[in-house]
Sequence to fold (678 residues):
Amino acid sequence: MIAIQNLTKQFGATTAVKNLSLAVNPGETFGLIGPDGAGKTTTLRVIATAMRPTTGQVTVAGIDVTHDPEAVKKTIGYMPQRFALYPDLSVLENLNFFADVFGSPRAQRTELIARLLGFARLGEFQTRLARNLSGGMQKKLALAATLMHRPRLLLLDEPTTGVDPVSRREFWDLLTQVHLDGVTIVISTPYLDEAERCQRVGLMYRGELIACDDPRQLRANLGAVVFEAHSTRALQARKLIEHRAGVRVASAHGDQLRLLLDCAERAAEIQTFFHANAISVDDWRQVQPRLEDAFVLMIAQEKQP
Amino acid sequence: MNFRLLSIVRKETIHILRDPRTLVIMFVIPIIQLVLLGYAATTDIRRLNTVVYDADRTQQSRQLVEAYRASDYFAINAYVNNEQAVTALLDRGDVRAGIIIPAGYGERLGKGLTAQVAFLIDGSDPSVASTAFAASQSIGQAQSIQIIQQRTGIDPMRLNAIEVRPRVMFNPELKSANFMIPAVIGMILQFLTQLFTALTIVREREQGTIEQLVVTPIQSWELVIGKVIPYIGIAFFDLAEVLFLGVVWFDIPIRGSVPLLLALATLFLLTTLGMGLLISSAARSQQEAMLLSFLTMLPMIFLSGFFFPLEAMPVWLQALSYFVPLRYMLVILRGIIMKGVGLPSFPEQVIALLIMGPLIFTAASLRFRKSLE
Fold:
């Protein structure tokens, strides 16, 4: 559905996306993850024809985004990170405006709007101005607006950022329906539990795609074992061992110490080390790696020269 | 039928109707400007505060002061006893003119000699001063003629070899309002269309809605035209509003053809809408757009012949004024409204607008990119 070859996008002296190649299959839900400033938004904007690539080639359904952006626009639905509908227009007026702009025939429209409003559970709010909707409802409205012209590819830039957990789950229920309709979805997200729901995820860091795989594969191929332990001095404990041999990543969250180690035997050695240094760390257990562990580990490896 | 264009027009109209503050500004500003400029920007001089130092205190000197008072140009509101007091009052700005009649004025007149009177005028406002200057002389001369008549028994008016009979055309009462109101129309058209075009486009960028528009099939020209159409409608409404108030309230005559006025106003609007577009491509926020609008508007108004005659300006400023579309529009507006003339009377101005209108608008539209970069 999408084929990106050696995409580079520069803004003056800064390179937002560096030599990125990626293919997204039809019908797939693809997650883009990575820290802020990694180049996710720029990548999505280039695919959406909102920006032109500096070098490289991007095609959507076989159409080149630089050669025929107008044809690409009819195929895609793009939802920017910021709410980009008109705050002083009502729910219905916003939907009608985007339908008009895409030239969707009025005859079929009533039915489609009714279906989308029902689907997004906005039916009773159709005369409300968009500015008076809650954050979660605004996101659902924006999604409905991008679906007004029945796109085959949805590009969503952090659609659930700043939305409460209940609305987030509702939004993902909607996405599942869209996915089942056969629409290809590319979604960027800061939430790794959301990334786990994608068939494949791409991890971006400093403009580069540093990993791209099934999230289960990423966890399985972590190349480290994960241990959790409890300590009242977790922060101090972390500092003490973070540069020790065999410790890939050490992190502390409150009283929790989370260690990514090269092998399971290493844990015993570190326990002894803490004991010798008179720091009590107990409650040791080996746990299943999470996607976040893969994410943190890969970025830590990128940071090392 | 272009549905995309239509949908932009519809959406833009909703934006305007849902923003009561802007709506009020658009309909009230013309009234405020009209009233302010119709009344306040008047150069008609009446009852200028005047001080008198009469050192003569004779019947003749009192007659002269009375002649000035009767002229209605000067209001005598202070009598003082020395010259210093006259200048002191002028210094403080309490009075704008001072009459000093020296001792012996009446005596000299009685002897058939020429008597001198000093007339001091505050020149800090040149337009007031020049009117006062001319009035002070002509009233003195009229008084002088009366005295000669008394002395000789001959009516000196009959001795005149040349008799100049001025007849003021187009505005016989020399009312400032007749001159100002056509210009106010030009200024309002310029102000509203330029500012609001800039604001409406910058708003899309500031709100972030441009990002959604960019990925729709809307063409740049559709967006531009669609967005300005409602504002053109408002501009014409304001034009009608000002013309109506001008006729009903200020009693100005509309002597020429209104359809011609509307046609040429449309041409003029191309230049102001284009300016608005240019500003929108330079400004990053609505505040910046507003600031830029005012910055460009002020020099344009001064270089249009709105308040000050262009003929009196230095050559380099006059040269600059040829690039100001409002300059041409004011000639057209004053021509049609005050003089009742038509196309044959201002061909250069129409040609200038015919060139500038499409040029500015096209250049601005080409610069306008429906893009995030």
